[in-house]
Amino acid sequence: MAELKTKKNDASVETFLNTVKEEEKRKDAFTILEMMKKATKSEPKMWGGAIIGFGESSYTLSNGKKNDWFLMGFSPRKQSFSLYLFGKNEEKFRKSLEKLGKHEMSKGCLYIKKISDIDTTVLKEMFETHVKHGKRDN
Predict the structure, then answer these.
(1) Helix, strand, or coil here: 75?
(2) Which domains does the chain have, with CATH numbers?
(3) Under a CB-based contact definition with an 8 Å cutoff, are residues 53 and 73 in contact?
(4) CB neighbours of 41 closer than 8 A, spacing ≥ 6?
(5) In angstroms, rounded to a whole number, what is the distance separating the alpha carbons of residues 125 and 39?
(6) pTM
């Protein structure tokens, strides 16, 4: 089996976010950064070249191999922000998602285009809930 390519590294989170060309997206990225930093009470780390992760977690593959991962993270992708905070905890967020505002979902990810599309109080609560429920549930 291939080794996990997305690994924690020492690249600068701030330098990476300053490469976001669109001013509104860059400002939103720094807002999300601060919200996640506050919720996790941890410093951000780059994971690979484009994901910012907070905290420590791990998950076990079906073959028994354990992979290190972050507790919560995000990436300012071209189309939207990818927020990594679910794992198998999606059920805990169902009611919050109904109140969040404009978003899309896929397994393990929440996608938002911009902060002004959502209720940041609800997003903050979701971050706090995720941290409270701890480690990733495969």
Answers:
(1) strand
(2) 8-132 (3.90.1150)
(3) yes
(4) none
(5) 9
(6) 0.88
